[in-house]
Structures are given as C-alpha cells and as structure tokens.
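task queued by scheduler; priority normal; single chain, no ligands, no partner chains; default sampling; output format set to structure tokens
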Amino acid sequence: MTEEQKGVKVVNIVVSADLGHDIPLEKMAATLPNTEYNPEQFPGLVLRIKDPKTSALIFSSGKIVSTGARSMKKVHESLERIKETLKEIGIEIKKTPEVEIQNIVASGNIGMNLNLNVLALKLDNTEYEPEQFPGLVYKLMEAKATFLLFSNGKIVCTGTKTEDGVGTAVDKLIKKLEKVKA
C-alpha cells in the first residue's frame, strides 16, 4: 500500500451466502432476541449480531445477506454466529456456506486537498452538486469503483469486490488526481 492509501480502510463488506436449508423465520422471530421480522413489509428476517458487530438478512429459503463486517475474517465469524443461533432453534447447518462478496466499502483520507470544481470539469463520469451535497461522486470505470471525494482529501470507495481491489482502485484514483492536478 502506498503512503496515501494507508489512511483508507475497509469499513463494510456486504456478502451473500446460501445456508442450504429452509429457515423457519416465524420461529426465529418468536424465540430469539436481536431479530426483527415483519413479513407484511419485507420477506426477510433481520438478525443483529453483537460480536462481530454485523447484521444479517435471512430468508426462508436459507439465503442470507450479511453486512457490517470490516474483514473477511469477521464475515466468516459472523456466519458461524448465525449457524450457532440457528442451532438454538434446532437447525443444524453442517456445510460451510459459500460466500460471495457483493460490495466492499472503504473510507479514509488520501492526504491531498482536492478542488472539486476543477475535478468536476476535468474528469469524466462525475456528479457534483455543491448546493445539495459537499462531495463529488466519481465513477472510475477502469477500477469498477465509485468514489465520493471531499475537498479535504477524505474519500469513500464503493463497488469493489475484493480487499485488494480497494487498494488497486485507490491507486488508480490517486494517479488520476495527480494527472489532473486539482
């Protein structure tokens, strides 16, 4: 990682997985704490996990979406907690679910001030409405990432599918920004 990148850290990994087992959501909601289930409004049950601090959407088909983990290690710990929770209501998940990363969000500071007005003019694929919001949205197509840039050098990166992809995207962003000198 470059010096500028060191201030950028993964803050959220969104994954999907399939537990390979039907899940009785009504029973979960009735039996377990830290759950929210309102089938009239949404077909999934929300399970909040304290350690690691994550949330999971669980569907009766056994498909889940987990959010909040800051590393793949924490994603796997969270899935183990879900399996332990299901065991409490008599459902044993024997296989380790295959995890598919849907999105990684990272944020931090790249250590340079940015002139967002100049960037909005010089870069393609930007959205900047300073009267509405103080950040510039920049889609960096070759990195398959979207950045939120602020004038003080703080950034948010979303859209990557690997932790290494975050580093690559930030490297490409910094090179682009140095090229346009904003």
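post-processing summary
- The domain at 20-96 is CATH 3.30.310.10 (TATA-Binding Protein).
- The helical segments are 25-31, 72-87, 116-122, 163-180.
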